[in-house]
Amino acid sequence: MINKFNATFESYWHDNEFHLFNKDNEDDAKTLFNALRQNNNADNNSSQFYFDITPYSYQKEILDKLKAEREVHNRYKNLLVAATGTGKTIISAFDYKRFVLENPNSKNRLLFVAHREEILKQSLDVFRMILRDKNFGDLWVGRYEPSQIEHLFISIQTFNSKEFTENIREDFYDYVIIDEFHHSAAKSYKKLLEYVKPKILLGMTATPERMDGQDITEYFDNRIAAEIRLEEAINRRIPVFVK
User: Mean pLDDT over residues 195-201, rounded?
Assistant: First the structure.
Protein backbone atom coordinates (compact mmCIF):
# COMPACT_ATOMS: atom_id res chain seq x y z
CA MET A 1 0.00 0.00 0.00
CA ILE A 2 2.87 2.37 0.85
CA ASN A 3 4.56 1.61 -2.47
CA LYS A 4 1.33 2.29 -4.34
CA PHE A 5 0.94 5.59 -2.49
CA ASN A 6 4.51 6.61 -3.37
CA ALA A 7 4.06 5.67 -7.04
CA THR A 8 0.79 7.63 -7.29
CA PHE A 9 2.36 10.65 -5.59
CA GLU A 10 5.35 10.57 -7.95
CA SER A 11 3.10 10.38 -11.02
CA TYR A 12 1.17 13.44 -9.84
CA TRP A 13 4.36 15.27 -8.83
CA HIS A 14 5.81 14.96 -12.32
CA ASP A 15 2.53 15.60 -14.15
CA ASN A 16 2.58 18.79 -16.23
CA GLU A 17 -1.03 19.52 -15.24
CA PHE A 18 0.09 20.41 -11.72
CA HIS A 19 1.96 23.57 -10.75
CA LEU A 20 4.57 23.93 -8.05
CA PHE A 21 3.35 26.05 -5.12
CA ASN A 22 5.78 28.03 -2.99
CA LYS A 23 4.14 29.48 0.11
CA ASP A 24 6.88 32.13 0.32
CA ASN A 25 6.21 33.33 -3.21
CA GLU A 26 3.77 36.25 -3.23
CA ASP A 27 2.43 35.46 -6.71
CA ASP A 28 1.81 31.80 -5.82
CA ALA A 29 0.01 32.78 -2.64
CA LYS A 30 -2.16 35.27 -4.54
CA THR A 31 -2.99 32.69 -7.22
CA LEU A 32 -4.06 30.14 -4.60
CA PHE A 33 -6.15 32.70 -2.72
CA ASN A 34 -7.97 33.79 -5.90
CA ALA A 35 -8.57 30.18 -6.96
CA LEU A 36 -10.08 29.26 -3.60
CA ARG A 37 -12.26 32.38 -3.56
CA GLN A 38 -13.47 31.79 -7.11
CA ASN A 39 -14.26 28.16 -6.31
CA ASN A 40 -16.39 29.22 -3.35
CA ASN A 41 -18.22 31.77 -5.50
CA ALA A 42 -18.86 29.15 -8.19
CA ASP A 43 -20.35 26.80 -5.58
CA ASN A 44 -22.73 29.52 -4.41
CA ASN A 45 -23.82 30.45 -7.92
CA SER A 46 -23.30 27.70 -10.46
CA SER A 47 -24.78 29.75 -13.31
CA GLN A 48 -21.76 32.06 -13.37
CA PHE A 49 -18.23 31.30 -14.56
CA TYR A 50 -15.54 32.69 -12.29
CA PHE A 51 -12.52 30.70 -13.42
CA ASP A 52 -10.58 30.03 -16.58
CA ILE A 53 -10.55 26.50 -17.94
CA THR A 54 -7.48 25.30 -19.77
CA PRO A 55 -7.15 22.08 -21.77
CA TYR A 56 -5.04 19.19 -20.50
CA SER A 57 -1.68 18.69 -22.20
CA TYR A 58 -2.99 15.78 -24.31
CA GLN A 59 -5.96 17.91 -25.36
CA LYS A 60 -3.56 20.67 -26.41
CA GLU A 61 -1.70 18.13 -28.54
CA ILE A 62 -4.93 17.20 -30.30
CA LEU A 63 -5.84 20.86 -30.81
CA ASP A 64 -2.41 21.46 -32.35
CA LYS A 65 -2.91 18.51 -34.70
CA LEU A 66 -6.27 19.87 -35.82
CA LYS A 67 -4.69 23.25 -36.44
CA ALA A 68 -1.90 21.68 -38.49
CA GLU A 69 -4.40 19.71 -40.57
CA ARG A 70 -6.04 22.96 -41.62
CA GLU A 71 -3.17 25.41 -41.83
CA VAL A 72 -0.46 23.10 -43.17
CA HIS A 73 -2.41 20.51 -45.16
CA ASN A 74 -5.53 22.53 -46.05
CA ARG A 75 -7.82 19.82 -44.72
CA TYR A 76 -10.92 21.37 -43.20
CA LYS A 77 -12.88 18.15 -42.77
CA ASN A 78 -11.36 16.51 -39.71
CA LEU A 79 -12.10 13.31 -37.81
CA LEU A 80 -11.26 13.22 -34.10
CA VAL A 81 -11.08 9.80 -32.44
CA ALA A 82 -11.01 10.04 -28.66
CA ALA A 83 -11.71 7.40 -26.04
CA THR A 84 -14.84 7.91 -23.99
CA GLY A 85 -14.08 10.14 -21.03
CA THR A 86 -11.06 11.94 -22.52
CA GLY A 87 -13.14 15.04 -23.15
CA LYS A 88 -13.70 15.15 -26.91
CA THR A 89 -16.53 17.66 -26.46
CA ILE A 90 -14.20 19.89 -24.46
CA ILE A 91 -11.64 19.63 -27.26
CA SER A 92 -14.27 20.61 -29.83
CA ALA A 93 -15.32 23.60 -27.70
CA PHE A 94 -11.72 24.83 -27.44
CA ASP A 95 -11.26 24.29 -31.18
CA TYR A 96 -14.39 26.31 -31.90
CA LYS A 97 -13.24 29.01 -29.46
CA ARG A 98 -9.99 29.31 -31.40
CA PHE A 99 -11.95 29.50 -34.64
CA VAL A 100 -13.98 32.41 -33.21
CA LEU A 101 -10.83 34.24 -32.12
CA GLU A 102 -9.32 33.79 -35.58
CA ASN A 103 -12.47 35.18 -37.24
CA PRO A 104 -13.47 38.18 -35.10
CA ASN A 105 -15.57 39.82 -37.81
CA SER A 106 -17.62 36.74 -38.64
CA LYS A 107 -20.80 35.43 -37.03
CA ASN A 108 -19.10 32.03 -36.67
CA ARG A 109 -22.34 30.10 -36.89
CA LEU A 110 -22.18 26.71 -35.17
CA LEU A 111 -24.18 23.55 -35.72
CA PHE A 112 -23.65 20.73 -33.21
CA VAL A 113 -25.39 17.47 -34.11
CA ALA A 114 -25.92 14.42 -31.92
CA HIS A 115 -28.46 11.60 -31.69
CA ARG A 116 -29.50 11.95 -28.04
CA GLU A 117 -30.93 14.80 -25.99
CA GLU A 118 -28.64 14.05 -23.05
CA ILE A 119 -25.54 14.44 -25.21
CA LEU A 120 -26.79 17.74 -26.60
CA LYS A 121 -27.54 19.15 -23.14
CA GLN A 122 -24.12 18.16 -21.80
CA SER A 123 -22.40 19.54 -24.90
CA LEU A 124 -24.21 22.87 -24.66
CA ASP A 125 -23.13 23.19 -21.02
CA VAL A 126 -19.53 22.48 -22.01
CA PHE A 127 -19.54 25.13 -24.75
CA ARG A 128 -21.07 27.71 -22.43
CA MET A 129 -18.42 26.95 -19.83
CA ILE A 130 -15.47 27.10 -22.26
CA LEU A 131 -16.77 30.25 -23.97
CA ARG A 132 -17.73 31.80 -20.61
CA ASP A 133 -21.15 32.66 -21.98
CA LYS A 134 -24.16 31.25 -20.14
CA ASN A 135 -26.47 32.39 -22.95
CA PHE A 136 -24.56 30.76 -25.79
CA GLY A 137 -26.47 28.43 -28.09
CA ASP A 138 -29.92 26.86 -28.11
CA LEU A 139 -31.22 23.31 -28.05
CA TRP A 140 -33.50 21.95 -30.74
CA VAL A 141 -34.49 18.52 -29.56
CA GLY A 142 -37.62 17.00 -28.03
CA ARG A 143 -39.59 19.71 -26.25
CA TYR A 144 -36.83 22.30 -26.69
CA GLU A 145 -37.35 24.93 -29.39
CA PRO A 146 -34.59 27.44 -30.24
CA SER A 147 -34.95 31.22 -30.01
CA GLN A 148 -32.19 31.56 -32.62
CA ILE A 149 -30.45 29.21 -35.04
CA GLU A 150 -26.98 30.74 -35.39
CA HIS A 151 -25.52 28.56 -32.62
CA LEU A 152 -27.63 25.44 -32.57
CA PHE A 153 -27.39 22.09 -30.79
CA ILE A 154 -29.73 19.84 -32.70
CA SER A 155 -30.61 16.15 -32.78
CA ILE A 156 -30.29 14.27 -36.05
CA GLN A 157 -33.96 13.33 -35.67
CA THR A 158 -34.97 17.00 -35.51
CA PHE A 159 -32.77 17.81 -38.49
CA ASN A 160 -34.61 15.25 -40.60
CA SER A 161 -38.12 15.98 -39.34
CA LYS A 162 -38.20 19.80 -39.47
CA GLU A 163 -37.48 20.21 -43.19
CA PHE A 164 -34.19 21.77 -42.17
CA THR A 165 -32.64 21.70 -45.61
CA GLU A 166 -35.58 23.59 -47.10
CA ASN A 167 -35.27 26.52 -44.69
CA ILE A 168 -31.53 26.92 -44.11
CA ARG A 169 -29.02 27.24 -46.93
CA GLU A 170 -26.20 24.73 -47.17
CA ASP A 171 -23.40 27.18 -46.29
CA PHE A 172 -25.25 28.91 -43.43
CA TYR A 173 -23.08 27.30 -40.75
CA ASP A 174 -19.37 28.05 -40.56
CA TYR A 175 -18.47 25.28 -38.16
CA VAL A 176 -20.31 21.94 -37.99
CA ILE A 177 -19.65 19.28 -35.34
CA ILE A 178 -21.11 15.78 -35.59
CA ASP A 179 -20.78 13.75 -32.41
CA GLU A 180 -20.72 9.93 -32.38
CA PHE A 181 -19.69 10.03 -36.02
CA HIS A 182 -19.70 6.24 -36.31
CA HIS A 183 -23.45 6.64 -36.87
CA SER A 184 -22.73 8.51 -40.11
CA ALA A 185 -23.39 5.45 -42.26
CA ALA A 186 -27.10 5.76 -41.46
CA LYS A 187 -29.30 7.43 -44.08
CA SER A 188 -30.27 10.21 -41.65
CA TYR A 189 -26.64 11.29 -41.34
CA LYS A 190 -25.87 10.93 -45.02
CA LYS A 191 -28.56 13.50 -45.78
CA LEU A 192 -26.88 15.92 -43.39
CA LEU A 193 -23.37 15.28 -44.69
CA GLU A 194 -24.40 15.67 -48.30
CA TYR A 195 -26.14 18.96 -47.58
CA VAL A 196 -24.03 21.07 -45.22
CA LYS A 197 -21.07 22.98 -46.64
CA PRO A 198 -19.31 24.55 -43.63
CA LYS A 199 -15.85 26.07 -43.48
CA ILE A 200 -14.93 23.39 -40.94
CA LEU A 201 -16.47 19.97 -40.40
CA LEU A 202 -15.43 18.12 -37.25
CA GLY A 203 -16.51 14.54 -36.71
CA MET A 204 -16.01 12.96 -33.29
CA THR A 205 -16.16 9.34 -32.16
CA ALA A 206 -14.63 6.92 -29.71
CA THR A 207 -15.28 3.92 -31.96
CA PRO A 208 -14.49 4.57 -35.65
CA GLU A 209 -14.42 0.86 -36.50
CA ARG A 210 -17.95 -0.30 -37.40
CA MET A 211 -19.15 -3.89 -37.10
CA ASP A 212 -20.43 -3.80 -40.69
CA GLY A 213 -17.01 -2.81 -41.99
CA GLN A 214 -18.10 0.54 -43.45
CA ASP A 215 -15.32 3.13 -43.45
CA ILE A 216 -16.35 6.46 -41.91
CA THR A 217 -13.04 8.10 -42.84
CA GLU A 218 -14.27 8.47 -46.43
CA TYR A 219 -15.69 11.86 -45.44
CA PHE A 220 -12.25 12.96 -44.24
CA ASP A 221 -9.92 12.09 -47.10
CA ASN A 222 -9.60 8.59 -45.62
CA ARG A 223 -7.62 9.76 -42.62
CA ILE A 224 -7.95 10.44 -38.91
CA ALA A 225 -6.79 13.94 -38.03
CA ALA A 226 -6.08 13.26 -34.36
CA GLU A 227 -6.71 10.43 -31.94
CA ILE A 228 -6.21 9.18 -28.43
CA ARG A 229 -7.31 5.60 -27.84
CA LEU A 230 -8.22 4.08 -24.49
CA GLU A 231 -4.94 2.16 -24.20
CA GLU A 232 -2.92 5.33 -24.68
CA ALA A 233 -5.13 7.23 -22.23
CA ILE A 234 -4.53 4.56 -19.59
CA ASN A 235 -0.78 4.45 -20.24
CA ARG A 236 -0.59 8.24 -19.89
CA ARG A 237 -2.65 8.11 -16.67
CA ILE A 238 -5.26 10.38 -18.21
CA PRO A 239 -8.31 10.83 -15.94
CA VAL A 240 -10.72 9.11 -18.34
CA PHE A 241 -13.64 9.76 -15.95
CA VAL A 242 -13.57 13.42 -17.02
CA LYS A 243 -16.46 14.13 -19.39
Answer: 95
